[in-house]
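Notebook, p. 212. Picked up where the previous page left off. The plan for this session was modest: take the two constructs that came back from the sequencing core last week, fold each one, and keep the raw output in the notebook itself so nobody has to go hunting through shared drives later. Recording the first one now, exactly as returned: residue sequence, then the structure token string.
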Amino acid sequence: MAAKTREVRFRRLVDLSQEISPDTPMFPAYPAPAFTPWTTREVHGFLAETLFLVSHTGTHVDAPFHFEPTGKKVDELPLDQFLAPGHVLDLPGPAPRASVEAPDLRTARKAAGRSVHPGDAVLIRTGWERTRGTPGYLHENPGLGRAAAKELVDWGVSLVGIDSPNLDAAGAVDYPAHHTLLGAGIPVVENVANLAELGTGPFTLVAFPLRLRGTTGSPIRLVALVE
């Protein structure tokens, strides 16, 4: 089968990724990243480091297998799912632990003045990024409710991202948004950064994960190619 091709023209790049360092905010279940010097110029003639980090570190993608036992792993997802026309749905100011619902998404889509087509990528801007570095960032975040996640499935999107550390609202222990999207084969990107720099114009989202065999997720360099 011939590979799909897509011509992309853009005026500027916007980096939507968090920096990964030992200070990157991590949930208690995950260890902090660590970069350890491994070779020296004196002995080997060059420098290199070992990287110790969870596959869900910083700006990262959740593959369906992260929650769904029969879901695809990172290396099993098609590359074209991570290169798509992008849309920002602006939902600023939800309360801590609040659930974004389907009518909120429809209102934000109407306000954006652009149609979301099957195969497009959607980024949810809640403004929660402003709390990064505080305890609340990891433990008080708003997120998508089950009906909102189902709405995105019905739109036929290829990928969903959010500017918080968790797609689900803090306290949603049954992870309804994760199960709804990942159960439909739609990967999720968390810890999206710098959405305010995108503006309202069209862009192409680039969200390629590393080619990690058998994993539930991968850190990514999330980039918008702004037209």
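Okay, moving on. Second construct, recorded in the same format:
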Amino acid sequence: MPIEGRSPRDCAEQFRAHMAELLSRTIAPTVPLLLYEGGRETRFGMSFRQGRKLAAISLATRYGRLFFHLAQLVEAEKVAKRYELRTLSYWYRLQATAELQDEALLRWEYDRAQDPRQPGPPRHHLHAPTAIKWGSHSLDLNQIHTPSGWVTIEELLRFLIVELGVTPATPEWPRVVAASEDVFFRDFSGKRAVKLPRG
């Protein structure tokens, strides 16, 4: 079930607090994850920020320094006397520079407004500044919406730590990430959890 609260801000703050704790215990121990007004009283954005400006965090990887940015737009819908939180969109960016207007090396995006029953690109997609070439043809992965499925922040943290070699804030990071995933699937979402073996 979705996050519930007495007000739209209460719902959004529950989610921000959960995400902030997860990020501080894995890859971003000193960078704040802040909530801001998202254009109407029921809508909120969440991202790494420095002052009023969106920010990317610096990561030391086995491939050199990279920068990671995340942003989510959420909305609280009134249901009976309470509000329920829904994700409207997310953007996760991995890039060579800290400047968010620069091209991302990888960007995962979701747009709930894209109706899957209508013609249009996949709602969950991936972009990369590369092309797949065959013969005289070229498929530009930065210009098309390559379907990715729903990408949770926990899966991205696994990717950053395991595949890119980012040093986690704690050696207990697998337990921290798994516990966060349990909370997400049990308390925050109607999506199903992946059953992992206990051990």
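Notes on construct two before I forget. Residues 27 and 168 are 5 Å apart (CA to CA).
Flagging for discussion at group meeting.
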